[in-house]
Amino acid sequence: MKVIIAHEFGHALHNLLSDREGMDWPSLNWENPYIWLLQEGCATHFSKQVAEAEESVYFSYDDQGEEWLEFALANKQELIRSFINDRDKQSPREIFNEWFSINGGKKHDYTRLAYFIGYEILQHLIEKYGELKAVTSWTEPNFNQEIEQVMKELMEA
Predict the structure, then answer these.
(1) Cα(first)–Cα(last) distance of the chain, in Å?
(2) Helix (H, G, I), strand (E, B) or coil at 23
(3) Looking at the predicted structure, is the pLDDT value of residue 64 above 90?
């Protein structure tokens, strides 16, 4: 429960930091899966800073998440490739249902795999730009291109 609460507070912190950096909220495309990736990556990142738990709990939200995390780590490149493929072929609602929803996960047998992808993207951005610029990257006009570039780099790593 503490990880879930920390995750939700992570969303609030992400929004506060973005607001401070001049986020133009009315122009944000809330139907953009890249926005969702950043949101969930940030919430997961911040939850890890304040709630102590096993690594897998930050993604699975239960004590039996080791298998989930092992799958995600072992298949990271394929998961990103699959996400990009769906991004190009499916509606935002279909992407949300499969990749972000607790009721999704039909394609890879695990729910919320986009949380892992988003977290990995954010970690890559933090290495590149530092934490504040990474978490507020959605305020930048080239945000979509930056996310696409990071996913490409993660698939090649």
Answers:
(1) 34
(2) coil
(3) no
CB 23 within 8 A of CB 139: yes
Write down the pTM of the prediction: 0.96
Under a CB-based contact definition with an 8 Å cutoff, are residues 135 and 45 in contact? yes
> Which range of residues forms the domain containing residue 94?
2-156
> 22: which residues sit within 8 A by CB, 6+ positions away?
139
Q: Quote the tokens at residue 20.
A: 């401070």
Total structural domains in the chain? Answer: 1
Task: Give me the helices (H) in the chain, please.
Answer: 2-20, 33-50, 57-60, 66-74, 76-89, 92-95, 113-129, 131-135, 143-156
State the Rg of the chain over Cα: 15
For residue 135, CA distances in Å to 12, 49, 70, 97, 98 come to 12, 14, 26, 24, 24
Q: Which residues of 125-136 are buried (b: 16+ CB within 10 A; e: fewer)?
A: bbeeeeeeebbb
Q: Which single residue is written with the structure tokens 């507070």?
A: 9
Residues 90-139: pLDDT tens digits?
A: 999 999 999 999 999 999 999 999 999 999 999 999 999 999 999 999 99
